[in-house]
Amino acid sequence: MGTLGEKAGTFILTAIQVANDTKRMVEERVKGLVKEAMADHEAEVSKLRERLEDVERLVRRGAKEPERKDAGTPARPKKRRGRKKAAKAPECSFPGCGNRHMAKGLCKNHYYQLKRGSIVKTATGYEAAKPKPDAPAEAANPAATQPDPSAPKENQAQS
Asked: Residue 96, by phi and psi: left (phi above 0), alpha (psi -120 to 50) or beta?
């Protein structure tokens, strides 16, 4: 076991060594960042030199350089705002209808007709539903229109 002074000295030496290691790592990181920045800068300078050579060629030919409003800044594409427009709005898939579709490939009118049952979906698309017979219930059941023979006759009982 060492004395308190020896322990303090060891601690201080360790702290100094850690500080030196940290300093070395920071220096290496800074050097790496500077190299990256220089490479980016050199690439930008190279692009500017190429542009300058193009302008010099145009000047030698006697042509004017096209003027830009934002000569100091690089050109950027304009950003669109809002929803993107579809190339062409989809049309209703009901035969003969060219209206814009709302849901399930149908326009508003045909979609609601589908919900009501006026049109049906088939394997090939949509078509009008088969009309239901409009005959009254008595025509469908002829026995309901004839009187019951076992029931008393009202006309005969009164006479």
From this structure: left
CA-wise closest residue to 94 among 109, 81, 73 = 109
pLDDT band (50, 70, 90) for residue 97: confident
Would the CA dihedral through 94, 99, 104, 108 be positive or negative? Answer: negative
Q: What letter represents residue 74's amino acid?
A: P
Q: Tell me the one-letter amino acid at 133.
A: P
Give the C-alpha separation, 105 to 113, whole Å. Answer: 13
Residue closest to 115 by CA, chosen among 103, 97, 101: 103
Domain residue ranges in the chain: 12-63, 89-131
Whole-model pTM: value is 0.30
Condensed to tens digits (0 to 9), the pLDDT of residues 37-89 reads 999 999 999 999 999 988 888 888 876 656 666 566 666 677 777 777 666 77
Q: Which two tokens stand for residue 29?
A: 């990181």
User: Phi and psi dihedrals of 26, rounded to 5?
Assistant: -65, -45
Q: What contacts 145, CB < 8 A, 6 or more positions away?
A: 138
What pLDDT, on the 0 to 100 scale, is given for residue 118? Answer: 77
